[in-house]
Structures are given as structure tokens and as C-alpha cells.
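Duplicate of #3305? Posting structure anyway:
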């Protein structure tokens, strides 16, 4: 199968130049960096600019007075990271797949005299690896240790490791500092975490990393409302692992959000559809899209992953409950489980089309270090290597049970190709006729405009391109809500709004 091309600018990070020296060091300047990662040519290039990472804006929000904080996201394609004025402190978030780039950045800034702090998900599983490139490593909840790190840096007694659990009251965490973001560069700057943790603990999920204790906690709905209100955006994204883990809380949050008349999307587990009334409340509160980790259409795979979920034969009925309430469904599917036969790709795509999912994302099963899945693969001698660059869910890094690693990669690419085909987009069109046009606009802008995205991102036109669609979607959604409230909405009339529910 012919592999789609990725433009160089989306494939390779900018070269870090040796001739750029720290001429104007600013002692109270902090630079927070989200490192570059190569984009998957099979997926939409646009998904990287939907919302900014909350990890860095949250750390910025915990910065004591007296510091100036700047933000740099290499995925916004603005070239060489800043060096003039030169920051005294550089904070870099490290994930498995862009760890190498994060280390290159850390080494570059350190060699010019900056104090470099590394944190993020990878710090939890491989802290020693990070320590080789950092003055200090923040393990666990970076927001809690950040003020202490800055105080120790200022008094010259920085330690190598700082660690904080996630067991304190989450509602006391400071709000993220969104004003450091370049608003034009994102679909929306209104990203929120209303909760953290998940009632599940799936063996392949980073939440099951050894040593990571993250009890499910929530923030006060009125704080979320305040944040949403103050960020002048029509659309918000909840980046919680699972906003549906505590249904009573979700109900309270929906009632608080409803008067705002803004639209939003969130990741929830499919079991929230146990309560159709809650789905209706979500819709009335502005929820226009959900991201659901279906993971697999095999009950055995779900059971072995340790996920508590309804039977897979009931998935389609549950999707219909969301559609009936005017909520799009973006399904997430993982390929390569031990009970995936060779025809898993075709069967999954065909199910997605039958259930008319507006959007879907595919992932190759990836054993993240420290998780039960990683230990199992290591025990069974099935890991192919430990080159983290390829632990990005688009490469096979282990030997699957019923196919070869290359079959797995080809099947994954084929599934994306099918999903983004004109035929599949047509087959998944909403039933409601008036919703078909906005659905096509979204599908073609999001999924079939990869040639166009690098230009849009570099010009910082992301928000400009999406904003009219967002407004259109918002109006449509609340018109639909009127029908829902009056009881006039029927399954045939529902569904089909714009904007990918991706988070
Ligand atoms: S349901 Fe999702 S977020 Fe929760 S543990 Fe499983 S994979 Fe992770």
C-alpha cells in the first residue's frame, strides 16, 4: 500500500543551531516548551492544533509572582525555539514519543546556561533517563512541586528530583494560565480538566503505570464555569481521561454549564449511556461531541485489558443514544490485541460505518513502560525494541499473536485510508438532511485537507479557519436543544453537527 507523504516540516523538528548564543539572559524569565513530534501521515494533521496542552498552562498557573512566563509549542511550526531574550529557567514536558526531542532541547538550553526542569508522563516511568538531561526532574503532579522548584532555583539549592502524588484535593489546584497561549494558533484555547483519574485501570493505559496513584477527583463546577466564561471562545474541550467516571458529578457540571450556551466535547466511557437522561442533560448543556474509547469490538480483548465496559454487542445502541441527542461520536479503536484476527481492520471499519460514527481514531496497541501490558510483553519476549520514538501508537513495537508486525501496521494504515475515503465519509453522513452539509465541511476540512494544514498552522490561521464552523455548529446545536426540550426530537431528526470530538 502506498504510504501517504508527510511534509518535512511535520516530520522533522527544527535544527537547534550552534551559533545561537545566550546574549541577553533574563533572570526572571521562564520558558515552557511542548516539544515537536513527527505527525502520523495517516491521521489528520489538524488534530495537533485543536487545543493546547494543559500540562504547561497548569504549571504556568502555579508560578509565583515575580516571574514572567512564556510558552512555546514546537508543533505550531514557528521555527527555531526562542533564545533571545534567553530564559533563566526552561520547563519541558516529556512524553515517550518525543522524549528524544525533549532531551535535545534540554541539552541545548542547558549548555547555554539555563536551568532545565523536565516533567510530564515519561518522568513517572523513566525518571533516571530524564535526569541525564535536566537540572531537576518533576515526578507526578508537577503543579504541586513547581513553586518549590523555583524557590530552590532562586536560592541555589536545586535538588535532582521532586515528587508529588495526586492525592491532595484537586479542587485546590490553581487554574491554568491561558493568556500565555497564542489564541490564533489553536482551534480553541478553552481546554479544561474538570476531573483527573478514571474509574477503570486498563492494563494498556498510562494511568496503570507502576507507582502512579491517581484517585478519581473532580473540581468544583463553578470554577470550570468561571474559566469557560472568562475565555472568550464558543467551543471548549474537556481533556479529562474520563469525564463520565462519576455520573452524579457530570450531571452537576452539565447543570452549571447549561446557562453559558457554549458548545463543548469530552472523553467519556461508553457506560455513561446507561443513563439516557444524563446524555440528554449533556446535550442541553452544550455537549456536541464525545470521544469514546471503544478500544475493541471483542469482549475478550476488553476483559483481558481489565476494562469494565458493557458488552460490545450493545455499543451500537449506545451510540444511537448519543446521536438521538445531537451528540457526535468520535470512537477510538486499538488494533493488535491478542484476540484480534487478521480481519479485525475490515470488521472495525464496517462497524464504524454501520454505526455512523462521525469520526474515529485508530491506534496500534503500544506497551507503555511501567504498565502491566509492558511487563506482560517483556515477560513473553514479544517486545521488538525499546526505541521510544516508535512507541507512538502508529508503529508495531511488539509481536502480535495472530499477525506479523508489518501486517498490523498495514492494517492500521488501511483502516485510516478507508475511514478518510469519500465512500466512507458518504456512508457515515448523518440521517438528518440539513446536517449533511456541515458534516461534509468538517470531514473535508479535518480529514482530507492534510495538504493544506501545514500552511494553515504556519500562518497561524487555525482559529480563523475554524471559527465560522464553530459558530455555525453552536447555533445548530442550540436549535436542536430547543427541539429536545420540547420533546419534538426523534432519532431520525437528530445528529450531524460539525467539529471533531477529538481530544
Ligand atoms: S477507560 Fe480509558 S482512561 Fe480509563 S483506564 Fe481505561 S484507557 Fe485509561
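Output from current build:
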Amino acid at each position: 500500500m502506498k504510504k501517504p507523504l508527510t511534509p518535512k516540516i511535520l516530520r522533522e523538528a527544527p535544527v537547534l543551531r550552534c551559533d545561537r548564543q545566550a546574549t541577553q539572559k533574563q533572570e526572571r524569565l521562564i520558558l515552557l516548551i511542548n516539544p515537536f513530534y513527527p505527525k502520523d501521515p495517516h491521521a489528520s494533521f489538524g488534530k495537533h492544533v485543536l487545543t493546547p496542552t494543559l500540562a504547561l498552562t497548569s504549571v504556568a498557573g502555579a508560578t509565583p509572582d515575580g516571574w514572567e512566563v512564556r510558552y512555546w509549542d514546537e508543533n505550531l511550526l514557528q521555527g527555531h525555539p526562542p533564545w533571545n531574550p534567553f530564559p533563566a529557567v526552561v520547563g519541558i514536558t516529556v512524553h515517550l514519543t518525543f522524549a528524544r526531542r525533549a532531551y535535545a532541547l534540554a541539552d541545548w538550553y542547558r549548555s547555554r546556561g539555563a536551568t532545565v526542569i523536565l516533567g510530564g508522563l515519561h518522568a513517572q516511568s523513566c525518571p533516571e533517563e530524564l535526569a541525564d538531561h535536566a537540572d531537576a526532574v518533576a515526578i507526578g503532579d508537577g503543579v504541586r512541586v513547581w513553586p518549590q522548584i523555583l524557590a530552590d532555583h532562586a536560592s541555589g539549592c536545586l535538588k535532582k528530583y521532586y515528587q508529588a502524588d495526586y492525592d491532595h484535593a484537586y479542587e485546590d489546584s490553581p487554574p491554568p494560565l491561558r493568556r500565555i497561549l497564542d489564541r490564533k494558533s489553536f482551534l480553541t484555547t478553552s481546554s479544561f480538566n474538570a476531573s483527573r483519574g478514571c474509574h477503570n485501570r486498563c492494563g494498556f493505559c498510562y494511568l496503570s503505570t507502576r507507582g502512579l496513584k491517581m484517585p478519581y477527583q473532580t473540581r468544583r463546577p463553578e470554577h470550570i464555569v468561571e474559566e469557560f466564561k472568562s475565555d472568550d471562545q464558543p467551543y471548549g474541550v474537556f481533556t479529562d481521561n474520563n469525564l463520565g467516571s462519576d455520573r452524579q458529578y457530570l450531571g452537576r457540571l452539565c447543570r452549571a454549564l447549561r446557562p453559558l450556551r457554549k458548545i463543548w466535547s469530552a472523553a467519556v466511557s461508553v457506560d455513561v449511556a446507561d443513563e439516557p437522561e444524563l446524555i440528554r442533560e449533556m446535550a442541553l448543556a452544550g455537549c456536541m461531541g464525545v470521544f469514546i474509547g471503544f478500544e475493541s469490538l471483542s469482549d475478550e480483548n476488553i476483559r483481558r485489558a481489565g476494562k469494565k465496559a458493557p458488552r460490545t454487542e450493545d455499543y451500537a445502541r449506545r451510540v444511537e443514544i448519543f446521536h438521538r441527542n445531537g451528540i457526535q461520536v468520535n470512537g477510538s479503536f486499538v488494533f493488535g490485541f491478542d484476540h484480534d484476527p487478521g480481519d479485525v481492520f475490515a470488521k472495525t471499519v464496517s462497524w464504524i460505518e454501520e454505526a455512523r460514527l462521525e469520526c474515529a481514531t485508530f491506534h496500534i496497541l503500544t506497551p507503555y513502560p511501567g504498565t502491566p501490558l509492558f511487563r506482560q510483553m517483556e515477560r513473553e519476549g514479544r517486545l521488538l525494541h525499546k526505541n521510544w520514538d516508535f512507541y507512538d501508537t502508529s508503529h508495531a513495537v511488539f509481536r502480535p499473536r495472530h499477525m506479523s508486525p508489518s501486517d498490523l501496521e498495514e492494517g492500521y494504515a488501511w483502516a485510516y485510508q478507508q475511514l478518510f475515503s469519500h465512500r466512507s465519509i458518504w456512508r457515515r453522513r448523518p440521517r438528518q438532511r440539513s446536517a449533511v452539509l456541515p458534516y461534509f465541511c468538517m470531514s473535508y476540512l479535518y480529514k482530507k485537507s492534510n495538504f493544506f494544514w501545514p500552511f494553515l498552522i504556519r500562518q497561524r490561521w487555525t482559529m480563523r479557519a475554524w471559527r465560522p464552523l464553530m459558530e455555525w455548529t453552536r447555533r445548530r446545536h442550540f436549535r436542536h436543544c430547543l427541539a429536545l426540550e420540547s420533546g419534538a426530537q426523534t432519532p431520525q431528526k437528530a445528529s450531524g453537527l460539525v467539529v471533531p470530538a477529538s481530544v
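Confirmed duplicate; merging threads. Residues 462-486 form the longest helix (25 residues). The pocket of iron/sulfur cluster is lined by residues 198, 200-202, 205, 207, 241-242, 269, 293, 307 (CB under 6 Å).
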